[in-house]
Write a structure and sequence with these properties.
The protein is about 70% helix and about 0% strand. It is an all-alpha fold.
Length: about 550
């Protein structure tokens, strides 16, 4: 298939509708977004041998024993390393292979992503079947994480080039899918496990195989649907803003090899890292946080603290907390599209100012809302914070395009995602260890997160300062006219001139409508399932 996968085979021709590209990107992002929902597998896998209850390993058994044992069950903490590997290899693979993606185009990268993500699930299923944790880590965690990285960045530069008039909205549409993947994948995984569960089986390895097959089909369909605009293409009737009219939107092009040498790259790196660290910290502890802060107040029994709840009450409180987690997911998803689209009107720097200023105020207000007993205010604070967490992901590709131009924005974005890998460690560790330290110090559960909220606000202060320091890129970093002309000549020879004025036009044609239905129906199902869980929160 080498010819079919080459970049010059996916150049759009006359009559192609640019609104077919976002559904292709969503098809991939909705699949790899299941990484956020993998916790649904941990409890069943923690009793894969014991079935009814975990068969504990010896008290002195260490991690090495867990990697190779076939006689006792894995701990949830050992299984959760898969998520850590996801985030680490997502950022690493995006940084390492971002330049390759720009050369070969999104179709080949999307297909490799599908093979890695689905292949990781198949290899993980093998690890579960033979009960070897190291195979699960290597397959689902490492190989799957590489698929995540390539799939995550595959549409970025393509969408920005198709929608130069609405950069934020375009990337927001695709990256919204990554936030929504778990909303579809987690309930689907529960249905699959229930279907395969039986005597001596918890149904997880079978669910892995089924998901791998489903995701492979959808991701290959998305990869095949990718097209790139021909060299020199612009939307009909659109002209770039005049130089100097918008100082924060560059008219030069910075080469990939120079982008990380600029202060702007590292300022935006800190901006993303701090925004993600604060938000992912809340996501990692959302369910226990709500239960411990409000305790019996969730059941209209304000006199009962979390530690005094009965087993029956704990189950009821956990169900309510599941609704809270689902609500946060909806705001995480919606924020990706809303804030990225707003950044087209406000500008990227101003949008991040809102993220940080409003986020600091909301984190500072969260303890007050909690101790005042206002569940509605507390939940509102967390929902807005999570909308800006998602919005930060969706806005940053357009921020990079504004700073460094569009020629290498996909690869530059890939390198910037190392900030996400770093944040995936900072946020959860900060909130987790601070919680344990507060409990060990004898702090009551409803006050355990007070200092943590202030620390998360402190992270946003750092991000605010970094965003304040972002200035237009100095002209010395731009590619010279000769260098750019040589690069664009090679590119023009590969892509050819714009063929016809109707490329990109068409709006929501019948074909585009079908493409959007293919991704919209699963999203609607996931939203419905999530809303039924959210309803429990406000009963």
């Amino acid at each position: 298939m080498p010819g079919f996968l080459e970049r010059d085979r996916i150049i759009a021709r006359a009559g192609f509708n640019r609104w077919l590209v976002p559904p292709a990107a969503l098809a991939i992002h909705l699949c790899i977004g299941m990484a956020y929902g993998f916790s649904v597998f941990w409890l069943p896998l923690s009793r894969a041998i014991g079935i009814d209850k975990p068969r504990a390993c010896a008290a002195d058994a260490g991690l090495l024993n867990a990697l190779f044992t076939t006689t006792c069950d894995w701990k949830v903490s050992e299984l959760n390393w898969v998520f850590t590997l996801f985030i680490f290899f997502l950022g690493t693979s995006a940084a390492v292979w971002g330049g390759w993606l720009e050369r070969v185009g999104p179709r080949k990268a999307g297909l490799v992503s599908a093979c890695c993500w689905a292949g990781g699930l198949v290899l993980g299923a093998l690890g579960i079947w033979v009960h070897q944790l190291w195979i699960l880590w290597l397959g689902t965690g490492v190989l799957g994480g590489i698929g995540l990285g390539l799939g995550y960045i595959s549409p970025v530069s393509t969408l920005i080039k198709w929608f130069p008039d609405r950069r934020g909205m375009a990337t927001g549409m695709a990256i919204m899918g990554f936030g929504g993947g778990a909303m579809i994948g987690a309930p689907l995984a529960e249905i699959l496990m229930a279907n395969f569960r039986g005597p001596g089986q918890v149904g997880v390895w079978q669910a892995f195989l089924a998901l791998g097959a489903i995701y492979f089909v959808f991701m290959v369909g998305g990869a095949i649907g990718y097209r790139v605009p021909p060299g020199g293409w612009r939307p009909a009737g659109w002209t770039p803003p005049a130089a100097g009219l918008k100082a924060m939107i560059t008219h030069g092009q910075v080469h990939l090899r120079n982008a990380h040498k600029t202060p702007q790259f590292w300022c935006i790196w800190v901006v993303l890292c701090m925004n993600v660290s604060a938000g992912i910290g809340v996501l990692s502890m959302a369910s226990p946080m709500l239960q411990e802060i409000f305790g019996g107040r969730l059941l209209n029994a304000p006199a009962i603290g979390f530690t005094a709840l009965s087993d029956t009450q704990r189950l009821a409180v956990a169900a309510i907390a599941a609704g809270f987690t689902g609500l946060l997911s909806l705001f995480n998803i919606g924020g990706r599209f809303f804030w990225a689209s707003m950044s087209d009107l406000l500008g990227r720097k101003a949008t991040y100012f809102i993220f940080f200023a409003l986020g600091i105020a909301l984190y500072a207000a969260a303890p007050w809302a909690a101790h005042a007993g206002s569940l509605l205010l507390f939940v509102a604070c967390m929902c807005v914070i999570l909308s800006m967490y998602g919005g930060g992901f969706a806005t940053v590709p357009a921020y990079l395009a504004d700073m460094f131009g569009t020629q290498f924005v996909g690869a530059i974005h890939g390198r910037l995602l190392t900030a996400w890998s770093t944040a995936g460690i900072i946020g959860p560790l900060m909130i987790g260890y601070m919680r344990d330290a507060q409990i060990a110090a004898g702090v009551s559960r409803e006050h355990v997160y007070d200092i943590t909220f202030l620390m998360l606000a402190g992270l946003l202060v750092v991000g605010f300062v970094a965003n304040l320091m972002v200035r237009p890129v100095a002209a010395k970093w731009f590619m010279s006219d000769a260098e750019l002309a040589a690069f664009q000549a090679d590119k023009a020879a590969m892509e050819g001139p714009a063929r016809g004025t109707d490329i990109g036009a068409g709006g929501f044609s019948p074909m585009a409508l079908l493409a959007w239905l293919a991704v919209g129906v699963p999203v609607a199902w996931g939203v419905w399932i999530t809303l039924t869980k959210v309803a429990i929160l406000f009963r």
